[in-house]
Write a structure and sequence with these properties.
Rossmann fold
């Protein structure tokens, strides 16, 4: 990947498609193998994008670098949000009044579902995730790239037809964003090539 998405020839484009055998691994100049998502993250960082947001059907919003995660966390803070309730130190059962440590929730996610040292926001629906993507695309203060990791399943992941229309209308709206907004969206499509021998 020699060119940047923000070069003059691409300045009017808001959407980019990456397709082919996207499950392949790549070996960089440092001889470290990376999959396409890590390679894209590095390339987008080299192109000056500060916040790189990945969206997957299972992982929802996730990141491959700390800066992107922290910038999204700052965006996530809402003034109307209520503080989280602290877990009770009281144990349940016949000895209710005894103090003890709060129960620790076990993670139901398999180890391979964890993204880059847990740099992801869990517990959100597809609609919540898209609302954050929409907010990022409109935020012209932080140069952002949104990467949809499976474009083939993206629109079908929304079960409600009204939500599908909202997503498609938002995509149309992104084309009309002003030139000072340099945010882009990349859509990855897994196209398998079968050779008949």
């Amino acid at each position: 990947m020699k060119s940047c998405f923000s070069e003059q020839k691409n300045i009017r484009n808001r959407f980019f498609f990456v397709f082919g055998n996207t499950n392949d691994c790549f070996c960089g100049n440092n001889l470290i193998t990376m999959d396409l998502k890590y390679s894209l993250n590095k390339h987008l960082k080299d192109c000056g994008y500060k916040r790189i947001v990945f969206y997957g059907k299972d992982e929802k919003i996730h990141f491959y670098d700390d800066e992107s995660f922290n910038l999204m966390r700052k965006t996530q803070e809402k003034p109307e949000a209520k503080p989280a309730k602290k877990p009770s130190m009281l144990l349940k059962g016949p000895l209710k009044s005894r103090m003890g440590p709060p129960a620790v929730e076990s993670s139901d996610k398999p180890a391979d579902a964890k993204i880059a040292n847990d740099l992801h926001f869990g517990g959100m629906t597809e609609v919540d995730a898209f609302n954050w993507i929409d907010k990022c695309m409109h935020d012209k203060n932080i140069k952002t790239a949104v990467v949809i990791t499976n474009a083939d399943d993206f629109i079908t992941s929304f079960s409600d037809d009204k939500v599908k229309m909202q997503v498609l209308n938002s995509f149309n709206e992104y084309y009309g964003l002003r030139h000072e907004n340099l945010n882009i969206m990349l859509l990855i499509s897994y196209i398998y090539i079968y050779i008949d021998r």
